[in-house]
Amino acid sequence: MAQLICQNLSVGYDSQTVLQDINFTVNPGDYLYIMGENGSGKSTLMKTILGLIPPIGGKIQTGDGLRGNEIGYLPQQTTAQKDFPASVREIVLSGCQGHCGLRPFYSKEEKRLAADSMERMGIGSLAGRSYRELSGGQQQRVLLARALCATRKMLLLDEPVSGLDPKAADKMYRLIDDLNQHDGITILMISHDISAAIRYASHILHVGETVFFGTEEQYRQVPQGRLFAAGKDGGRE
Amino acid sequence: MNAILEKLALYWSYPFVRYALTVGVLISLCSSLLGVTLVLKRFSFIGDGLSHVAFGAIAIASVLDIANEMPLVMIVTILSAILLLRTGQNTKIKGDAAIAMISVGAMAVGYLLMNLFSTSTNLAGDVCSTLFGSTSILTLSQTEVWLCIGMSFLVAAIFVLFYNKIFAVTFDEDFAKASGTKTGAYNLLIAVVIAIIIVLAMNLVGSLLISALVIFPALSAMQMFKSFRGVTLCAAILSVFCSLLGLLISILAGTPVGSTIVVVQIVVFFLSWLTAMILKIIR
């Protein structure tokens, strides 16, 4: 059974539609790349799936034991966060907040979960450091560790490698791939990186004037995929 | 030095001085707690906006001849705080514009009402002391002191119990909401607590200087500390220290309470900035 089904979904802000008639299905363990030009509504789509903004039309269904609030999220960084005085441990631990309900403090188990997630992302030694002193790649791994505290089922990542140098980006890609392969976490990722998509993705959703959804092999056969691959040649913006 | 101590001992025997110091410490503690959140959420000016609203409410209370104005002022300010934080998320009128609109409007209406209907013989003096809190901290009644103490403990308790949630909502509201935290409810809570703090703090520094009490300790602490907990604790300690020092100076030198406290805050801010610079060079 599918974890996430979007049917005739239209998304946008204030009843202004950015994207419409989106249909796709995500099964457990899928690795979906969401591609498209800037401003084509990828982030809006992601925020709608997360329930941050209401859909304008259509339906989003979750299934296979996945509840709406069991989706981890790696947002694009805001400027406010770049100089936020918080230690790595504090930020990762805040990923557990969703399970807390009205309980005011974190349990031992949640603290262990946070420590595990930090080890997993290779930032265990940075736990006491300040977030704003870290490099871009380290910051992204902190946020990924936080998302892992929130869920072990599905992660939505909004351009996780934008602004990273190639080495850091490569490390990020391998970490994410590992989460998908070994832990069976479903990944939905917004990206411009066609070469990474071809390397890692199981499915691709290309949004824009026409919408494509299919497996990575199918994508290479359709005009959009060929154009995208030829035009950008795997380069990032 | 001995003369100063003797003078202080003499003043300490007056109940109004003890009231002022107690209330000053509690209010500055509370106002610093949410300062960090407000600065980081880019809401530094909400204190200013709300205090203007509170000024308008006080004007209405005095026109209606209500003896105990605190409850009315509290309710009006809380409602405005909710309204302001709501519009902050809305897109039609942006957060800062909404704050400017509501605060200036309330101020104008308040002053107009006071001018038209006031029974007081010293209108300018009344307005001035509401704006700058020149003497009100020294004229608190026992009921007001107890109300301040109760409210301060309430604010501190709420902050401690919801500390982790306030952190989550401040650092990344989208993530918190997506992973199941009720961000709307906590934003509402933050708004209500801010409003309570503003109304309390008006007694200490008057409505024009409240932002200083909320913002300066947080900014000073952010220079020196790196974790949220460290910044929050440091802001609380700095705030209490500055208020105590400011109060003592103003009692000894006869300067206005509010502005003296703010000047001490400014000096402490520069000292923190210097400390941070020196630490950076040493490392």
In short:
The complex is a heterodimer of chains A (237) and B (283). Chain A is an alpha/beta fold and 237 residues long. Chain A has ten helices and nine strands.
Describe the overall structure:
The complex is a heterodimer of chains A (237) and B (283). With 237 residues, chain A is α/β, with parallel strands linked by helices. Chain A contains ten helices and nine strands. In chain A, the strands form two sheets. A six-stranded mixed beta sheet of chain A has the order 5-6-7-3-8-9, with helices on both faces. In chain A, strands 2-1-4 form a three-stranded antiparallel beta sheet, with helices on one face. The termini of chain A are far apart. Residues 233-237 of chain A have low confidence and may be disordered. Chain B has a single domain (17-282), classed as Orthogonal Bundle (ABC transporter involved in vitamin B12 uptake, BtuC), CATH 1.10.3470.10. The radius of gyration of chain B is 19 Å and the shape is globular. The chains are: A alpha/beta (237), B mainly alpha (283).
Please name the CATH topology of the largest domain in chain A.
Rossmann fold
- What does the largest sheet of chain A look like? 6 strands, mixed
Strand content of chain A: 15-25%
CATH architecture tag of chain B: Orthogonal Bundle
Mean pLDDT of chain A, rounded to whole units? 83
Runs of chain A in which pLDDT lies below 50 for 5 or more consecutive residues are: 233-237
The largest β sheet of chain B comes out as:
none
Helix content of chain A: 25-40%
The whole-angstrom Rg of chain B is 19 Å
Tell how many strands the DSSP assignment of chain A holds.
9
- What is the CATH C-level name of the largest domain in chain A? Alpha Beta
**End-to-end distance of chain A:** 37 Å
Number of helices of chain B: 13
Compute the CA-based radius of gyration of chain A.
18 Å
Shape of chain B: globular
CATH class of chain B: Mainly Alpha
Which two chains touch over the largest interface? Answer: A-B, 41 and 31 residues
Judging from the principal axes of the Cα atoms, what is the shape of chain A? globular
| CATH architecture level-2 label of the largest domain in chain A | 3-Layer(aba) Sandwich
Structural class of chain A: alpha/beta
